[in-house]
């Protein structure tokens, strides 16, 4: 996008997933409570850190599900091929 001085300005596309969440069948995989996770870590000598942000966008969306992530902006129409943040079952799939 350009500003009033005809300079390109970086933009960020954001999608509201509310309509998609209403028609999506929810996965029922309970997440562990943080106190249970910390209890299991207590007294351990080695820890491993996973970069969750980078890993998130590496989960592929099945071809038949990509049409459900389609959105239109002033430039064109797009569909996600990798899982974006905000989908209702994304957290349980990521886990």
From TrEMBL:
Matches recorded under InterPro entries: DNA/RNA_pol_sf, Rev_trsase/Diguanyl_cyclase, RNA-dir_DNA_polymerase
SUPFAM superfamilies: DNA/RNA polymerases
PANTHER family from the UniProt entry: REVERSE TRANSCRIPTASE DOMAIN-CONTAINING PROTEIN, TRANSPOSON TY3-I GAG-POL POLYPROTEIN
Full protein name: Reverse transcriptase domain-containing protein
Organism the protein comes from: Mucuna pruriens (Velvet bean)
